[in-house]
From TrEMBL:
This is Short-chain dehydrogenase. One of its GO terms (molecular function) is oxidoreductase activity. It comes from Kwoniella dendrophila CBS 6074. Belongs to the short-chain dehydrogenases/reductases (SDR) family. PANTHER family: 7-ALPHA-HYDROXYSTEROID DEHYDROGENASE (PTHR43618), SHORT CHAIN DEHYDROGENASE_REDUCTASE FAMILY (AFU_ORTHOLOGUE AFUA_7G04540) (PTHR43618:SF4).
Length: 307
């Protein structure tokens, strides 16, 4: 780009923050949007003018999410709409898509956020011998636990993505947006680390599979000219239903910061917060030149494991 062309572009204001991350008028889907990172995502999108459909298996968190957003009093911006659905199976996914389709002609972003952590067998809580480890890890878990993790945290992302594909493509063909809808899959730093984190083999392996799935989706959609971008977020420790972090509001005290550095292994000395996460999400969903990428947001936890 020549200097003349560059400054002509700059003169049009396209690099202003509100335009760089504009989601006003978008239709968004956030699965598992009633709590934790899903609720942060849904709220941030709605706050900036998107119509956000959230789903989950439990009615109460969904209802609380809708009422909580309304209590902010941001009239005239976006909205959060709850649809109770179980996207951990094909029947539930199909019903959910059909309900959205009855209300909308396109979807600008699908954020697969739902997931489970069924608990793990502590690999350190036994005699650290071949016999002790064998007994602890063989008898401590079931095939069903592994199957549930992979079914919900990985396989359901695959089926949800393909079920929404026509609505995502329609964002450009019908909605006349500059690109079709895009997909964000939620994985974890646990899918990248080489440690089992005290024995959560099933969860970490499942999140690694989600990262691989996201890469494959991104490639296959691009290869076929659909241009539906797929990226994957790998968060570290954020307060949520699956990660209970005591004293999550950092007081700034040296003792508090040191606890997160030593006990939790976070070099930055604190867990992530809503602002950190929302900034990450907006950067991903609005950047039309990024697909097949992993976004790690962990305060340096993975980096710290390299020492």
């Amino acid at each position: 780009m020549s200097e003349t062309a560059l400054f002509t572009t700059l003169g049009q204001g396209v690099l202003e923050i509100p335009k760089l991350f504009n989601v006003e008028g978008w239709v968004a889907i956030v699965t598992g949007g009633g709590t934790g990172l899903g609720l942060i995502t849904a709220t941030a999108l709605a706050e900036n003018g998107a119509k956000v459909y959230i789903t989950g298996r439990r009615e109460e968190p969904l209802k609380n999410a809708v009422e909580g957003y309304k209590s902010l009093g941001n009239k005239g911006k976006g909205e959060i709409i709850a649809i109770q659905a179980d996207v951990s199976n094909k029947e539930g996914i199909k019903k959910f898509v059909e309900e959205v389709q009855s209300k909308e002609k396109w979807v600008n972003v699908l954020i697969n956020n739902h997931g489970i952590f069924p608990g793990a067998t502590d690999i350190n809580a036994c005699e650290q011998t071949a016999e002790g480890l064998s007994k602890q890890m063989f008898e401590g878990e079931t095939f069903e636990q592994w199957a549930d993790v992979w079914r919900i945290n990985t396989a359901s992302y695959h089926f949800t993505a393909f079920a929404f594909l026509p609505l995502l493509a329609a964002a450009k063909t019908i909605g006349k947006f500059s690109e079709p809808g895009n997909i964000v899959n939620l994985a974890s730093m646990s899918g990248i680390t080489k440690t089992s984190q005290r024995g959560q083999f099933h969860y970490n392996a499942g999140k690694a599979a989600t990262i691989s799935l996201s890469h494959q989706q991104a490639l296959e959609f691009a290869r076929r000219g659909l241009n539906i971008r797929v990226n994957v977020v790998c968060p570290g420790y954020f307060p949520s239903g699956m990660t209970i972090i005591p004293n999550e509001n950092n007081t700034g005290s040296d003792d508090h910061t040191q606890e997160f550095k030593t006990k939790w292994g976070i070099p930055f000395g604190r867990p992530g917060n809503a602002i950190d996460y929302a900034q990450c999400i907006f950067g991903i969903i609005t950047n039309q030149y990024v697909t097949g990428a992993e976004f790690v947001i962990d305060g340096g936890w993975l980096f710290n494991q390299a020492f």
